[in-house]
Amino acid sequence: MVAGVSALVSAAGMLALTPQPLRIARLDAPGFGLTSAGAAAPSAAVLKGADGHFWADGQVNGEPVRFLVDTGATAVALTPADAERLGFRTQDLDYSYRVTTAGGRSRAAAVTLSSVSVGGARLDDVGALVIEKGLDTSLLGMSYLGRLARFEATREALFLQP
Predict the structure, then answer these.
(1) Mapping DSSP to helix (H, G, I), strand (E, B) and coil, where does residue 142 land?
(2) 126 to each of 21, 134, 137, how far by Cα in Å?
(3) What are 110's strand-pairing partners?
(4) For 83, phi and psi rounded to 5 degrees?
(5) Is there a smaller number of Cβ atoms within 10 Å at the N or the C end of the chain?
(6) Is residue 44 predicted with pLDDT exceeding 50?
(7) CB–CB of 70/11 below 8 Å?
(8) Above 80 in pLDDT, residue 148?
């Protein structure tokens, strides 16, 4: 499920940054997200923060979670605090994966998120890891991004199409 998990956190220097206010817009971008009928399908856009990173306020299992978007992360990665808020009993998880984070090596537990939604781009049954130590903010990684029909980063925004 999480092959190559040692590359989980690629944003080593980014995790200590203070998140900037997030701006999300629903867009019908020309040429982006055409349906089979040829009409543009709505896409979500996460605008780049003042710090140059994409910060996304998502919904996980119906609860708010603040993510740093990280295309180099193999999986969605949750801090223990976010995992607890989502109803996972972190003390009961099986931390059998070894990962490298900005804080060094750590252990991680595999979990499945019923749903992950960012700006309306919702996916169900998303694999994730709960990082035992060393993760300052949860990461929106490839176990979510890689399942989208399309995602595209520009200088100003990250577009997500479910």
Answers:
(1) helix
(2) 25, 22, 18
(3) 129
(4) -60, -45
(5) N
(6) yes
(7) yes
(8) yes
Q: How many CB atoms lie within 10 A of CB 9?
A: 26
Residues in the chain: 162
CA 140-160-1 angle, 5° bins = 45
Six token digits for residue 24: 């999300």
Query: Are 105 and 7 spatial neighbours (Cβ–Cβ below 8 Å)?
Result: no
Q: How far apart are CA 106 and CA 131, in angstroms?
A: 7
pLDDT at position 93: 98
Cα separation, 154 vs 150, in Å, equals 13
Q: Which of 128, 156, 161, 144 is nearest to 49 (CA)?
A: 156
CA 86: distance to chain centroid? 15
Average of pLDDT values for 26-49? Answer: 57
User: Does residue 49 carry a pLDDT above 60?
Assistant: yes
Phi, psi of 90, rounded to the nearest 5 degrees:
-60, -30
Kindly report the backbone phi and psi dihedral angles of residue 53, in degrees, each rounded to the nearest multiple of 5, phi listed first.
Answer: -110, 160
Please tell me the pTM assigned to this model. Answer: 0.76
45, 157 in Cβ contact below 8 A?
yes
